[in-house]
Automatic annotation (TrEMBL):
Official protein name in the record: Large ribosomal subunit protein bL17
Gene expressing this chain: rplQ
Keywords in alphabetical order: Ribonucleoprotein, Ribosomal protein
Source lineage: Bacteria, Bacillati, Actinomycetota, Actinomycetes, Micrococcales
Family assignment from sequence similarity: Belongs to the bacterial ribosomal protein bL17 family.
Oligomeric form and interacting partners: Part of the 50S ribosomal subunit. Contacts protein L32.
HAMAP family: Ribosomal_bL17
Amino acid sequence: MPTPTKGPRLGGSPTHERIMLNNLSQQLFEHKRITTTLTKAKRMRPVAERLITFAKKGDLNARRRVLRSIGNKTVVHELFTVIAPAMAERPGGYTRITKIGNRKGDNAPMAVIELVMEPMGAKAAVAEATAVTEAAAPAAEKAAPVAAAAPVETTTEATSTDLPAGAAAALENGEAPEGFEIKGNAGSMKYHVPGSRWYSNTQAEIWFDTKESAEAAGYAPAGGVAAQTISE
């Protein structure tokens, strides 16, 4: 069993606290990411990950055990058929907590807790491709001294062979190449479309021309399907 948490409860009673954490877990499984206080996110993480562990078993007893905590059968069905298979190769660490600053008013620390749905090897593959691109850039500059007259075209040609289809590296001034508006972040394996919530605050490590190209490279929409729909 998890170690009992020290300090005051989140609710007025143990039952209230248990129901609160179960409801937060249900919202996490339904929306794939939620924003809450840092304290609730840390307290909810072991509850949600324990339910995912039950779902990975996939038998009838595990489904009945999860239904005792989550009453929404639609969410339970998605947990067993979509989320659990995506976590099959992952031994643990099914969630990720990101601090986003303090809330206005009561100055409570806020955080975003989300499901880690990307494949295990996707981050390593992108990191390797980035390393190859950075190593090839100095050699390309020495081999082509005329590149100083046309930096935009040379940068795109030097990196296009090392990047996935439909992707391009940022220009020397940090701006996006022409025709590439979707930002990709190799650390989180998420892509951001223009007009989305985190688009202006995201430092792009790779640019894509379409959402299909980003998803083909293993990137997922930031904020899940809901955020992608809003941006459209």
